[in-house]
Amino acid sequence: MAERTSPLINTATTLGKVIAFFLGSAVAGALVAGTMVPLAVGASKATEVAAGAYDSIEIPTENAAIAQPSVLLDRDGNQLAKFYVQNRKSVSLKKISPWMQKAIVSIEDERFYEHGGVDARGIARALVSNISGGGQQGASTITQQYVANLNVNNQQASGTAEDEIARNGNKDIADKVKEIKWANEIETKMSKDEILQGYLNLVPFAGATYGVEAASQRWFSKSASKLSIAEAATLAGMVQRPTRFNPTTNPEATLQRRNIVLGAMLKTGAITQAEYNKAVKSKLKIDPSEDTSGCAAAEGAAYFCQYVFNEVKLNPIFGKTVQERQSLLFRGGLTIKTTLDPRLQKAAEAQVVKTVPIGDPGGLGAALVTRENSTGEVLAMAQNTKFGTGKGKTKNQYTQYNFTADSAHGGSGGFQGGSTAKPWTALTWLEAGHSMNDVIDASRDDYGPTTQWKASCVYGGTVQAQWANLGNSINGMKKSMSAKYGLYWSVNTATVAEAYKLDTCKIAEQAERLGLLEGQTVTVAKRDDQNQVVYKKNAEGKSVVATETVAVTPKVLASPGPSFVLGSQNVTPLAQARAFSTFANEGVQCENTVLLEVKQRNGKLINLPETECKRLYDKDVISALNGTLTQIAKLRIVKGAFSASVGGKTGTNNNASSTWFAGYTSGLTTVSWFGNKDGTVKKGLNNGAELRGVKMYGKDSMTFAGPLWTQYMAKVYDYYEHTKITATDLASPTSTGGRAASSGTGSGTSTGSGTGKSTGTGKGTGTGKGTTPSTSAASSTKASSTGNAGQSTDSGQGNGNTKAPEKTQAAEKTQTPAKTQTPEKTKSSDKNND
After folding, report:
1. Chain mean position to CA 163
2. 321-369: pLDDT as tens digits
3. Contact present, 120 and 28 (Cβ < 8 Å)
4. Between vectors from CA 304 to CA 599 and to CA 372, what angle results, nearest 5°?
5. Residue 80: its pLDDT value, please?
6. How far apart are CA 772 and CA 768, in angstroms?
7. CA 644 to CA 641: how far, in whole Å?
8. Which of 264, 298, 568, 639 has the lowest CB atom count within 10 Å?
9. Least confident stretch, 125-134, 216-225, 490-499, 818-827
10. DSSP secondary structure letters along 178-235
């Protein structure tokens, strides 16, 4: 602890300390109507000096608010957690047991109701005892102790370093004289009961327990109003040396100290002889209750709690700086009512643990997050781990990383999205003037090294990249098909064929628009202004690719080539939930919110900004997309498990190390994730990852993520209202057909290298002959059609007669397009098995 030097007098010697003690006492005596015995002859000059210094000392005219814990509640008012540096609950004096009031007065200041701010008789008694060797005695009154604790609170609130705070053992004469002056001032403004009430609410006990109400709950699990004589004496005895007289850690010393307090109560007449005899013979009985600060107390909801904590820390409405916001949270006594729905949260916690037991040796993770579409309120957030470090506990049980959130809110940055990214291409396809009924040539699985991909955000407007041996996870899919059929069966060659016709920067911009890139960073090969890879010399003098960590932008995504269209980019489950809620909400997206109400300690509400909701897409575009996504959810995932209208998209990355279902009703969007919780991609559900001791092969999003979503939603969907999702051009699992996309003014039926003939019933009635080669999407216009265009009915029965495809046992490996300028090709991490 730092040594602090008095500006009044040198107290380095024993004599100096005694003189300084007398000087302070003399000044005090002048302010208590001459009750102090005059100093020895020759001390008048010193007294005059001390008095001058005393008069110059400033005392606070206003005090910082007493530190109070902030409480976090769910939407029903149930407590989730507390945040504090001092666990305290201030109560009125009438809610404190009379025995407690008598005990503290008897042991700390028996003449409290008789003297002013300073007790001259007490000072003299303490001085005689200390000089004569009769033991160290304090002379501070309860009022002096009260202002001393106020001073500590003020210094803490102002950010004073801990070793500079004026506490016992670290005070100089200036501090003591300041307390004397302040105590006398307080006595003119507050009644004795008001001072005693303030003191009992402010005084520290052991650890982070402050104030008698919190102490009573901590060691006796009861309100301070119900303390018995012995219990009150125990707590009163702790005040002198809280760490030494802690009944939990040092019961023998605490018992001895309690009995000393009982003796003082008997001496002052606070208790009778009979009451003393009974109490002093009783054993030290405690009934402790743990009360911790922070999110660990929220148990399964701890990750949601952590998200809220970081939201307060990041949000400027709670203070100008991070330090101010954290101080408000830990000292400000806020009551924070959150959006968490305990019904959904309980169901989510149960379902993720049912899917993957906590601490399963295989290291796999499962997570769920649910949002309300029209408000952006986060209703549930769960994962199959316990919050904390778990030192010495079973491996894989504990983590502080939130699987569902971005790094700013306590997450690890998410996981590869796999085929959940394919709607980005579909949206770009629709906004470029195409239809989900347009036929595309999905037979091409090789794009050579000189292939030019349109990328308007990159230098030169194109990216030259190779994509060889592009594969699908389902047999027989390298053929012409409608865009909606390709999306329904998540056909890689179909998505890439669309991307080849489009501007890949526009596809990447969909991810940005939907909020999926927010907070994401990536380490990439450094490129110059002409999009060429930059090289540097390493320590051995060899030329190596220079790298840099950058925020993910559309340009960053598109610069290496179009591999991102199959889901190589990391996304978080919560960002996915926000993005897919846009499809549920007819193109309108509401920002995430976790706060319903924040009340200050004085009962006034903090003015929270309204959740921002904005239209991102035209209703017609979303309706066309929903024509496929609703069929995916209805026919492949939900399969009648519950009755609400649903939509969504599966997703599986390379090796199935990350699998998803992002699904929605009109009311709720829930995202389920299942995979390697450490983010590794080399081993997954299709090449040996273990669950419950069994190695898995050939698994994907349909194996765990889909059932996780369905079983959870079946339990909770009827808590909220749902209407039918608007959807057009419904996809069919059996019909590949549709109408051909046109180019320029031709509205024929040709697509790429195909014959231009649709396998559906759409005939294309434009002026073209059906043999015009297709061109880029940028110059094409949608063909008009008077036919059905391959639409399926609501029951999923299409107009064609094609049977639903069968999945292969071992899917083909997908490769990432490689820039021709880079030294070697990189293999894809974006294979999709769903």
Report:
1. 32
2. 999 999 999 999 999 999 999 999 999 999 999 999 999 999 999 999 9
3. yes
4. 85
5. 97
6. 7
7. 9
8. 639
9. 818-827
10. HHHHHHHHHHTTS-HHHHHHHHHHH-B-STTBBSHHHHHHHHHSS-GGG--HHHHHHH
- Which tokens belong to 541? 């003098």
Dihedral class, residue 752 (left if φ above 0, else alpha if ψ from -120 to 50, else beta): left
User: What is the CB neighbour count within 10 angstroms for residue 193?
Assistant: 13
Residue that is written with structure tokens 């040996």 in the block: 688
Element (H, E) at 452: strand 452-454
- Tokens (6 digits) for 172: 């100089």
Read off the pLDDT of each residue in 541-554 and give the average, rounded to a whole number.
Answer: 94
Q: Decide: helix, strand or coil at residue 505.
A: helix
In angstroms, the CA 785 to CA 799 distance is: 16
For residue 476, what pLDDT band results from cuts at 50, 70 and 90?
Answer: very high
Supply 217's token pair.
């709950």
Token digits for 91? 């109560």
Q: What are the phi and psi torsion angles at 232 (to 5°)?
A: -60, -40
pLDDT at position 44: 60
C-alpha count within 13 angstroms, C-beta hemisphere, residue 323: 5
pLDDT band at 170 (very low <50, low <70, confident <90, very high): confident
Question: Residue 494: pLDDT above 50?
Answer: yes
Task: Check: pTM over 0.70? Answer yes or no.
Answer: yes
Residue 170's Cβ-count burial label (10 Å; 0-12, 13-18, 19+) is middle
In the block, residue with structure tokens 């699998």: 659
Q: Alpha carbon 703 to chain centroid distance?
A: 29
Contact of 208 with 293, CB cutoff 8 Å? yes
- Residue 822's pLDDT is 34
**Pair 112, 105: CB distance under 8 Å:** yes
Instruction: Give rounded-to-5 percent helix, strand, coil for the chain.
Output: 35, 15, 50
Would you list the DSSP string of 107-137? HH-TTTTTS-SS-HHHHHHHHHHHHHTS---
Token pair listed for 586: 């007819």
List, in order, residues 6 or more apart from 203 with CB less than 8 Å away. 145, 149, 210, 211, 212, 239
Contacts for 384 with CB less than 8 Å, ≥ 6 apart: 352, 353, 355, 356, 357, 358, 360, 365, 366, 367
Strands 70-73 and 335-338: parallel
The DSSP bridge pattern shows strands 398-399 and 386-387 to be parallel
pLDDT of residue 127: 54
Token duo for residue 344: 């959904």
How does DSSP assign 782-796, residue by residue? PPP--S-TT---TTS
More confident residue, 669 or 820: 669
Confidence (pLDDT) at 49: 60
Instruction: Give CA–CA dist 249/597, Å, rounded.
Output: 40
d(CA 21, CA 122): 13
Give the orientation angle of helix 422-431 with respect to helix 504-513, to 10 degrees: 110
Task: For the chain, report the end-to-end CA distance as a whole number of angstroms.
Answer: 63
Between CA 424 and CA 565 the distance in angstroms is 7
Residue with tokens 């996981």: 415
pLDDT digits (tens, 9 = 90+) for 103-134: 999 999 999 999 998 987 766 665 555 455 44
C-beta of residue 606 within 8 angstroms of C-beta of residue 317: yes
